[in-house]
């Protein structure tokens, strides 16, 4: 897929300095640019590379004035970083714009789907499934009975969506995600063995949710596990049964959330955070990576540590943590002096 400088400038509403007919077919970092690639310059630290880059086209701010000769064609815009991001979005949209139903695949006679959909080979779509317009389902996916998928959602290869799951509009579900598997529900019996508690609920995912690769979201025991509008989940996150995550919350990789925990809106949660079950996290909470959360948290708190406490207090305490051997030695020496004086 090739684009000319003229076409790109039209998309970005930019001005061309150089050859308007030069073509590009790939993207690159400015320091690694090669012929036929497109790059950008936004950070002044990388400005020296624009004079040596082999990239055919470089997006720059309108304020950029070259000090030496350039081989690359420039496209001048108001904000190079935002324009490059816009171009990436456009590139992805074009790249993912597949349509049609590939064979072999199976779609139940009772399933319904909208216009301009794509279903990749070896995909299974069960009974009474409802799929909206412009949905892309890549190969090797499983869509269970009674699943609903809204408009403009992308389901990448190898995703498993269990029965009764509801997914909104404009969602992105990356490869290896499993939505709606049974929650971890077992009770001990008189023999010391564990009997399974049936998991009869479902998962609800609202609009504009992104779910990273290999993340798992368990169905509720009763009711619903709910991921609210605008939530962004990184790779390899475990969300247990009956969890609820508030709108526009972002969670980094390898975080684990135990059953029935409620997380508020606009929270920012670092990687490898562990949440105990049946607690409530307020709105606008920030939690640093590798923290352990074993209690409910009020709105607007920032925490770190395991068990976690106030981020400011944690930083102050860390000064003492790292000096504990020295502090203990000083105390021991003082005790010896006191005992010697007695």
TrEMBL record:
GO terms for cellular component: membrane. Pathway: Bacterial outer membrane biogenesis; LPS lipid A biosynthesis. It comes from the Bacteria. The active site is at residue 241. Its EC number is 2.3.1.191. Keywords: Acyltransferase, Lipid A biosynthesis, Lipid biosynthesis, Lipid metabolism, Repeat, Transferase. The keyword Acyltransferase applies. Residues 21-89 form the UDP-3-O-[3-hydroxymyristoyl] glucosamine N-acyltransferase non-repeat region domain. The keyword Transferase applies. InterPro entries: Hexapep (IPR001451), Hexapep_transf_CS (IPR018357), LpxD (IPR007691), Trimer_LpxA-like_sf (IPR011004), UDP_GlcNAc_AcTrfase_non-rep (IPR020573). It catalyses: a UDP-3-O-[(3R)-3-hydroxyacyl]-alpha-D-glucosamine + a (3R)-hydroxyacyl-[ACP] = a UDP-2-N,3-O-bis[(3R)-3-hydroxyacyl]-alpha-D-glucosamine + holo-[ACP] + H(+). GO terms for molecular function: N-acyltransferase activity; UDP-3-O-[(3R)-3-hydroxyacyl]-glucosamine N-acyltransferase activity. Pfam families: Hexapep (PF00132), LpxD (PF04613). Homotrimer. Belongs to the transferase hexapeptide repeat family. LpxD subfamily. HAMAP family: LpxD (MF_00523). Catalyzes the N-acylation of UDP-3-O-acylglucosamine using 3-hydroxyacyl-ACP as the acyl donor. Is involved in the biosynthesis of lipid A, a phosphorylated glycolipid that anchors the lipopolysaccharide to the outer membrane of the cell. This is UDP-3-O-acylglucosamine N-acyltransferase. It comes from Xanthomarina gelatinilytica.
